[in-house]
Specification:
Shape: globular
Oligomer: single chain
Strand content: 15-25%
Radius of gyration: 17 Å
Largest sheet: 8 strands, parallel
Strand order of the largest sheet: 7-6-5-4-3-2-1-8
Number of strands: 8
Helix content: 25-40%
Bound molecules: pyridoxal-5'-phosphate
Length: 223
Amino acid sequence: MSLEQNIAQFEKLLAQKPARLVAISKTHPTALIEQAYQAGQRIFGENKAQEISEKYEVLPKDIEWHFIGTLQSNKVKYIAPFIKMIHSVDRPKILKEINKRAAQNNRVIDCLIQIHIAQEDTKSGFSYEEATEFLTSGQLRQYQNVRICGFMGMATNTEDEAQIRQEFRTLSRFKSEMQAKVKADNIALNELSMGMSGDYSIALEEGSTFIRVGSAIFGSRSY
Ligand SMILES: *Cc1c(COP(=O)(O)O)cnc(C)c1O
């Protein structure tokens, strides 16, 4: 199927749902993003600060850019002027830097807390305990230039759909629990970023509000 057909299919799939599609365009040339843009796609996600900044510079300014990768402190300044949402806040320290750079740009940056939900050490993120402590301690009140919008999780890379579903379901329940528990003017835990090309259907059934889909839209990546 063509890129246009892929995007149309996702539009149809999400039409009756609260979830939105983040088209993961990492490694792909700007011409391909332009093509997806022409087909109506407006939210794109990337995992490298330099790559996303270069693409932001040359592509239409009404694109909503989302960051999904491990973010080094010294790279936050490059994306702070334009980034709409950072899905991958995976440690407390990085939020301080995001807040500082957002303030310098007179912006508020939407952030998701990444939770380590997979049974793989290669993936990063807070444990549920760490996230609970972080959100309930009151320390986030000092960061008025970030808004904590919810959580992101990547399921284990496995054929076992029951396991994937269980990991997504646990995260979804955690979101509901924290929603009821945490009250602050810069925290509104409504979003749940879960689901990639291989598991977005399960993620949607379990309450995802952002699916992050790359290869199912653009085809496979060559690094
Ligand atoms: C690359 C990536 C995706 C998209 O992966 P696909 O399997 O190509 O859909 C989603 N989320 C994160 C964090 C990624 O790094």
